[in-house]
């Protein structure tokens, strides 16, 4: 079994070591992201509200994908407790935030996942679950997840880096493609991704290698055609996401000698138009232990939000967070390359 | 001048050719950009054609660029190799079919 960087005691499991490579390492010197943003007159970059409340329910996962920015895996034990979930619910009950985005790890592995979903739903919020697909097949107790998602009208977002087996398995592990296809068919069977059901199933593409995603529209067309032809699978939208040069993907880039070239690619593709729509501007990201971050990437780099008085759910202060200054580092180039990248795919209009 | 003719970094300097003749370079790059857009053929299909042609003209810069581009656009290793075989077959065939000229000539001058 492949292990997480943390369990392998790889120095890259340490966020300050990662930041050191990204920010200060003289052999890997690249143009500063902050200066680029200053150059287009957008520094400091400020949030424009909090519309999406993204909760990382823990680092435990049934997969160990090579590119994972969470360094998730079966050997990670950090999961959100019910007490911390209750703090999330307190915040949500007292705020106009309408969208809750549940991620991980595999959020479904959290023992209180279903309870949490029911409580959020009772508050009338829209829920997105980032489901890795294979979890549905991982154990009998997860086989009814499609029905559970349907019951709560959850929007499902799932990764499938290719419509071919070899590329998917290279990135996500042996057998992942086959199980993902079965899981997609199970989701389709209850109505997900099928026209007029109102049950949304979006797919995520991210490159299986040291390169940037091609055109989202072209990919979506191809996925639609191939998945229907070969497996009779349909879905709503495809989001093309850029891999972030942090955690396990950073490890991959460094060990294969691709790091500098990849950074140059990201920098060369810097798109000023993508800056104004980066997802941190309307999102708040909550860690498994209740701390607050600008996004899931800053969370993994342990960069807590700037307002010192509102860095944890217990002190959540919407007025301080909604126009906070975003913490920008070199990895942010991953959000602004080409058509841009976010949890909802390309961002440049 | 480097002591070898090809240098990987030079690919990144392609855009600089405008330094010596801007107008023609601008026209070339705008034409080039237009050619590779989605049209009657998709940008993806064009990438595979470019990969095959890159091998036929044996341009290391183009091979570098279109090996990445075709892979990024989703072609598999086997598809890319088959494209190279197409280039090879056409090139090989082009040599061999001239054998007919050779035969014609020999037949003309032999008894
Ligand atoms: S990328 Fe997602 S599915 Fe893969 S190991 Fe990370 S959290 Fe799990
Ligand atoms: S990495 Fe996070 S903080 Fe940086 S631009 Fe992207 S979403 Fe914003």
TrEMBL record, chain B:
Q: According to its UniProt record, what is one Pfam family this protein matches?
A: CMD
Please give the Gene Ontology molecular function terms for this protein. Answer: peroxiredoxin activity
> Domain Carboxymuconolactone decarboxylase-like spans what residues?
23-102
Q: Which domain of life is it from?
A: Bacteria
Q: Which InterPro entries match?
A: AhpD-like (IPR029032), AhpD_core (IPR004675), AlkhydPrxdase/COmuclacdeCOase (IPR026445), CMD-like (IPR003779)
Specify the protein name.
Carboxymuconolactone decarboxylase family protein
Q: Which organism is it from?
A: Mucilaginibacter glaciei
């Amino acid at each position: 079994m492949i292990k997480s960087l943390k369990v392998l005691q790889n120095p890259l499991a340490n966020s300050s070591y990662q930041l050191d490579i990204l920010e200060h390492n003289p052999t890997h010197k690249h143009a500063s992201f902050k200066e680029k943003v200053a150059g287009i007159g957008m520094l400091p970059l400020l949030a424009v509200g909090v519309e999406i409340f993204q909760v990382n329910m823990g680092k435990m996962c049934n997969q160990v994908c090579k590119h994972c920015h969470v360094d998730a895996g079966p050997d990670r034990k950090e999961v959100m407790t019910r007490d911390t979930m209750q703090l999330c619910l307190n915040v949500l009950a007292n705020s106009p935030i309408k969208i809750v985005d549940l991620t991980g790890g595999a959020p479904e592995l959290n023992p209180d996942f279903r309870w949490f979903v029911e409580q959020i739903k009772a508050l009338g919020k829209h829920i997105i679950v980032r489901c890795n697909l294979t979890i549905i097949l991982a154990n009998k107790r997860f086989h009814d997840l499609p029905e559970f998602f349907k019951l709560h009208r959850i929007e499902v977002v799932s990764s499938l880096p290719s419509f071919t087996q070899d590329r998917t398995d290279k990135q996500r592990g042996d057998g992942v493609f086959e199980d993902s296809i079965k899981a997609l068919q199970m989701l389709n069977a209850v109505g997900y991704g099928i026209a007029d059901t109102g049950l949304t199933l979006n797919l995520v593409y991210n490159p299986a290698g040291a390169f940037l995603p091609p055109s989202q529209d072209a990919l979506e067309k191809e996925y639609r055609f191939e998945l229907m032809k070969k497996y009779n699978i349909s879905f709503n939208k495809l989001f093309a996401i850029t891999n972030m040069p942090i955690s396990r993907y950073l490890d991959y880039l460094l060990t294969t000698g691709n790091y500098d070239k990849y950074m140059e690619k990201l920098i060369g593709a810097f798109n000023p138009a993508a800056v104004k729509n980066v997802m941190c501007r309307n999102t708040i990201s909550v860690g498994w232990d209740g701390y607050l971050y600008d996004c899931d990437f800053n969370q993994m780099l342990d960069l807590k939000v700037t307002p010192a008085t509102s860095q944890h759910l217990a002190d959540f202060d919407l007025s301080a967070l909604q126009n906070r200054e975003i913490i920008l580092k070199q990895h942010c180039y991953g959000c602004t390359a080409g058509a841009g990248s976010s949890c909802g795919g390309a961002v440049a209009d | 001048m480097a002591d070898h003719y090809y240098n990987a970094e030079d690919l990144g300097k392609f855009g600089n050719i405008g330094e010596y003749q801007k107008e023609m370079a601008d026209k070339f790059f705008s034409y080039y950009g237009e050619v590779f857009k989605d049209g009657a053929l998709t940008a993806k299909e064009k990438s595979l054609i470019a990969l095959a042609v890159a091998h036929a003209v044996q341009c290391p810069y183009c091979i570098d660029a279109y090996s990445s581009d075709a892979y990024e656009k989703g072609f598999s290793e086997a598809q890319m190799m088959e494209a190279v075989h197409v280039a090879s077959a056409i090139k090989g065939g082009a040599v061999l079919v001239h054998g007919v000229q050779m035969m014609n000539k020999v037949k003309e001058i032999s008894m």
